[in-house]
Specification:
121 residues; alpha+beta; HIT family, subunit A; 5-stranded antiparallel beta sheet; 3 helices; binds guanosine-5'-monophosphate
């Protein structure tokens, strides 16, 4: 797959506000936050979309969700609540083709999460 901006962040070729790293994942602040807390939890493995997740990636994907809960507890918003979102493809508005779990917190988030663009459709 084509290299994305997230691969460059993993390799420290471009800067990011990194809050957590281990052997298989990286967490950093979204550059355009949609909530007081907006983190991106990514695997270091390059996987373009949810459609490209293979059977052997199951533990890795579980790791991303486990990490979301750990971060929520550590950062103190686990009890208040938060949202995790992984967009897939054009209709979901995916813009970076390296899977990432958005972790949004710090205010009531509302539901459904329509964007203006979707409302017009
Ligand atoms: P998507 O729309 O693909 O689900 O989410 C991509 C996210 O990556 C967006 O929320 C966008 O703000 C974020 N993003 C795009 N480029 C960069 C970057 O260079 N650095 C950081 N930290 N976030 C980025």
């Amino acid at each position: 797959m084509a290299e994305t901006i997230f691969s460059k962040i993993i390799k420290r070729e471009i800067p990011a506000d990194i809050v957590y790293e281990d052997d298989i994942s990286l967490v950093f602040k979204d550059i355009n936050p949609q909530a007081p807390v907006h983190l991106l939890i990514i695997p270091k493995k390059e996987i373009a979309t949810i459609n490209d997740i293979s059977k052997e990636d199951r533990e890795l994907i579980g790791h991303l969700y486990w990490l979301a809960g750990e971060l929520a507890r550590d950062m103190g918003f686990a009890e208040d609540g938060y949202r995790t979102v992984m967009n897939c493809g054009e209709n979901a508005g995916q813009t970076v083709f390296h899977i990432h779990l958005h972790l949004l917190a710090g205010k009531p988030l509302g539901w459904p999460p329509y964007t203006d663009r979707m409302k017009q459709a």
